[in-house]
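Per your request, structure below.
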């Protein structure tokens, strides 16, 4: 399997058991597997998680994984594993892991282990790693010399194993080294007094430096701000943890030793809600990072430059994922991964919205005396229940707030409906029409009490107190395109529509065309099929801000 990937050697089960043996999983919560392959190691950890859940209800590990191979990433996602990046060597996070466990590519395993040691050096933590034994025995590069020195410094446990992959899914006779190392927790020194001393000296410098966050690129700017906030928060938490023993409320005698010790609660309180460390009263750095991630993902989802072209339904779908996104670093990689996913969904989502809008502006309200004139009936292909939307339509959309007895066209329901109509026509228009700021126009109308003939991008609107909105479309050719789109999707136009000249049509086909628009209008369609017959290829980029 995946023989085209020269570095992919799935870890055999017996070797995974050796990797996990002697680890104290009672003290492990957060885990990273940097080269996850198809998830064999994670699967074994999940089995252990299941056994531990039998003893402690709702127990679960916080597992992140990384994988370079695109095919393997698909497998990991299919298994529901949390894939947070595509290259461990470029992974940049402030999240802390209790355990990094990996079977990296033998070709650059040295760099992977050095990166893991650097990560765990910041706060302490365990590492379990498989390496080609030659990496340690043949110190032919500076990286290998550094690695051996660090492993000695941290008193790593190293076991050399022959024929470890002899019966593996992909065999090799390479001798391996199984390395286990526990980096000590870093002792924290208070930075408050030093910080106060330097604050006066750097006050002016600090004020000018804060402007660096104002960058042209939206994503880079917001990621920079996120990193700054997380870094500041971590410093605060660790300073509080360092000072905690010094600011207890009282002293008392230890019952066993009789010595005087600090006891009781803490004078100062730093609250992270439920985000406490599971083994002590210390505040959890990872819990803090998770909540800040949620804050920034939420901010991004409310930024019109990022989601401005999404329909309300699609927006809601992504809002519903905010809790899950707290487990993913707020990084450029993950932002662009999400943007790609949006681009894939937005086409099908907008086309579904167009059909829904076609129904809403026509058949949905046909029974009401006010809205019965929205549509023009014609005998369609194989049916006599066909229609298209007229230039003027009436829909139930309340621009007046009856409860407060005021004119309120900026209500989120009103604005959302009008934005969805505009987005549908944006999609069909392909960015040809000049933009008009819908939100600003509605604010102006509300401020000055303007209720009639409010000019928007593709239509004018008039609000009435009885709760209706009159829409007059101002681009007849785009409205025609909308009607063709809806009628074709409904199957009301002949399959030959737009493919045959009128003179070549059958009598039955001509009859439908005659009732729908007539020969003259159909000739216009045939003379410009690229415009009228929408195929999705001539649409604007829905995630691009054309007005910028």
């Amino acid at each position: 399997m995946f023989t085209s990937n020269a570095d992919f050697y799935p870890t055999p089960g017996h070797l995974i058991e050796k990797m996990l043996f002697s680890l104290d999983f009672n003290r492990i919560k957060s885990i990273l597997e940097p080269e996850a392959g198809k998830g064999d190691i994670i699967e074994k950890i999940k089995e252990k998680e299941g056994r531990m859940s039998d003893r402690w209800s709702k127990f679960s590990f916080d597992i992140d994984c990384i994988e370079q191979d695109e095919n393997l990433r698909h497998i990991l996602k299919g298994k529901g594993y949390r894939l947070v990046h595509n290259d461990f060597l470029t992974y940049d996070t402030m999240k802390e892991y209790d355990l990094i466990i990996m079977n990296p590519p033998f070709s650059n395993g040295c760099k992977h282990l050095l990166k893991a040691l650097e990560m765990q050096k910041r706060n302490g933590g365990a590492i379990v790693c498989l390496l080609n034994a030659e990496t340690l025995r043949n110190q032919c590069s500076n990286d290998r010399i550094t690695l051996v020195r660090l492993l000695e410094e941290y008193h790593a446990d190293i076991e050399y194993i022959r024929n470890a992959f002899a019966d593996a899914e992909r065999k090799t006779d390479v001798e391996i080294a199984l390395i286990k190392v526990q980096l000590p927790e870093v002792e924290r020194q208070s930075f408050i007094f030093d910080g106060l001393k330097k604050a006066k000296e750097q006050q002016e410098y600090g004020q000018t430096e804060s402007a660096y966050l104002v960058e042209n690129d939206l994503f880079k700017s917001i990621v920079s701000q996120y990193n700054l906030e997380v870094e500041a928060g971590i410093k605060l938490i660790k300073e509080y943890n360092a000072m905690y023993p010094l600011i207890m409320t009282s002293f008392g005698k230890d019952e066993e030793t009789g010595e005087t010790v600090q006891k009781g609660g803490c004078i100062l309180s730093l609250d992270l809600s439920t985000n406490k460390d599971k083994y002590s009263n210390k505040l959890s750095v990872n819990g803090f990072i998770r909540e800040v991630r949620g804050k920034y993902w939420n901010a991004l989802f409310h930024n019109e430059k990022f989601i401005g072209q999404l329909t309300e339904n699609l927006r809601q779908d992504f809002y519903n994922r905010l809790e899950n996104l707290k487990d993913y670093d707020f990084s450029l990689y993950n932002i662009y991964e999400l943007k790609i996913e949006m681009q894939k969904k937005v086409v099908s989502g907008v086309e579904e919205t167009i059909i829904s809008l076609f129904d809403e502006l026509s058949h949905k309200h046909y029974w009401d005396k006010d809205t019965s004139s929205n549509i023009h009936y014609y005998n369609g292909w194989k049916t006599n229940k066909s229609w298209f939307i007229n230039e003027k339509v009436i829909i139930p959309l309340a621009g007046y707030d009856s409860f407060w007895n005021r004119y309120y066209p900026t209500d989120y329901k009103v604005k959302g409906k009008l934005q969805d109509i505009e987005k549908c026509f944006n999609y069909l228009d392909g960015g040809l029409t000049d933009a008009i700021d819908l939100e600003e126009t509605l604010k102006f109308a509300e401020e000055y009490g303007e209720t009639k003939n409010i000019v928007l991008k593709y239509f004018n609107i008039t609000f009435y107190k009885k709760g209706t909105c009159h829409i007059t479309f101002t681009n007849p050719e785009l409205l025609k395109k909308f009607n063709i789109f809806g009628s074709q999707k409904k199957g009301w136009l002949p399959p030959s529509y737009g493919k045959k000249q009128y003179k070549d049509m059958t009598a039955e086909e001509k009859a439908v065309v005659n009732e729908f628009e007539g020969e003259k209008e159909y000739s216009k369609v045939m003379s410009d099929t690229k415009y009228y017959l929408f195929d999705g290829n001539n649409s604007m980029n829905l995630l691009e801000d054309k007005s910028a």
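The mean pLDDT is 84.

Regards,
D.
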